[in-house]
Each structure stands twice: as C-alpha cells, then as structure tokens.
Here is the input.
Amino acid sequence: MIIRKTAAEIEEMRPACERAAEVLSRVVRWVRPGITTGELDQYAAEQIAELGAKSAFLGYHGYPGHICVSVNDEVVHGIPGDRVIHAGDVVSIDVGVVYRGWVGDNARTVAVGNTVPEVELLLAATAGSLAAGIAAARVGNRIGDISHAVEEYVVARGFSVVREYVGHGVGRNMHEEPQIPNYGPAGRGPRLKAGMTLAIEPMVNMGVAAVKTLDDQWTVVTADGRPSAHFENTIVVTDGEPEILTCPLKTPFE
Here is the structure.
C-alpha cells in the first residue's frame, strides 16, 4: 500500500529530511585524500547526534555503519572501515536519518581532487538523471514516467543504469511502497498522487549495468570494475511542482 501523507505529516517529516541533507552536505565537505571511510562514518555519527537525530542505517538488517560510503566501483552499501580515500577516487555518500519518527534519505557522489573527464561526465549524468526523474514526479503521471525519464537521460549520455536496486517510498519507515526502478517504459505503474513521499535514487555505471555483491553481503560493485555514481533525494509529490525535501536549512538548527 502506498502511504500518502497529509499536509501536516509532510511538515512533520520535513525536519528529518533537512537533517539528512545537512549531514550529507557536511560529510561530503569532509571527504579528502588520506581520510578513511571509517573516519567519515564517525564524523557522520557525530553530526547526526549533534542534530538530535539517529542513523536510519545503523543496525538496519544488521548493517554496521551509520552511513554508506561506496568508493570507485562500489555502487551502494559500502561498509565504512579502514579503506583510505585517495586523490582521483569517486566516493558515494548515502545518509539516512530518523528524527521524531520520520525518515529522510539522500545520497551524493563526489570526485576527490582532479579526475578524468569521463568521471565528471558520469557524475553529471547521474545528477542530471535524478533531476529528470524528479521533474516527472507530477500528479497524473505514473511511477514508470519517473523510471523512463531517468533511464532516457542516462542512456543518451552513454552510461548504464543499475537494475537490481531501486528507489522507494519513504516516511515513517525507510522503505515504503512503491518501488521506483530507474529504467523501464513510461506510462506504467501506480498513478502519482499528491502527498506521496518518494526517495528517487539513480545508480549509474560507467560501463556495463551488471553488478555483484561482495562476500560481506552488503557491498555492491560493478561487474566490470569500472566506476559508479549514486545520487538521491527525498521528494514530495504536490498539486504543482514536486518539492525536494532533502535540502539543508539555510539557518542553524535548533
């Protein structure tokens, strides 16, 4: 069942999304050569606590980190640890928090230092596909219109969309209905209605679309070892333009 939120519930959910965005913004600024993924996780934990929230990921089905940190060919669910970030790496940060019973979920990928033009194009294509998917999240459209917009944007730029992992509804739980694939034909799936809160999250590979899961049962990597990128925002479908909820506040948090 797809849970539509009332106007009051969206206002209750908004602070969780703002905190998730604020943490993501802070952690992304902390990424630099020489830091470990575990240090990024610890820094994220401190920022989450400072904002009065809790990690939505820690302990979720046994996941051991406060955030996900996926490097280079790691697509999603990279477990923070001893890995050192180097100049030229591609680093995806995925942050979900719980605040006052609501979840905010978002992700961003950054290149560390100077990188090759193809990586810059990959990141731009993934971010652009997220924007295209969000733009399609309008009342009267269907979930498949979001999916198609993402895939069309990515494929036109010569990259491939991961199919095994999808976006999702989000609210009081991190994963709610509906699932939102990043591929497929337009005009299919549930009709979009005002009050739907969705986490749209393209995962885009430089090479082939195929992925595999490492022995830790969490880290997903590209099958060909080439880089991947991941961008995500939590949005709400409205009677007008879709609204991105995961935007950091411009004023200090209480």
Q: What stands out?
A: The CA atoms of residues 4 and 196 lie 5 Å apart. The mean pLDDT is 97. DSSP finds four helices and 15 strands in the chain.
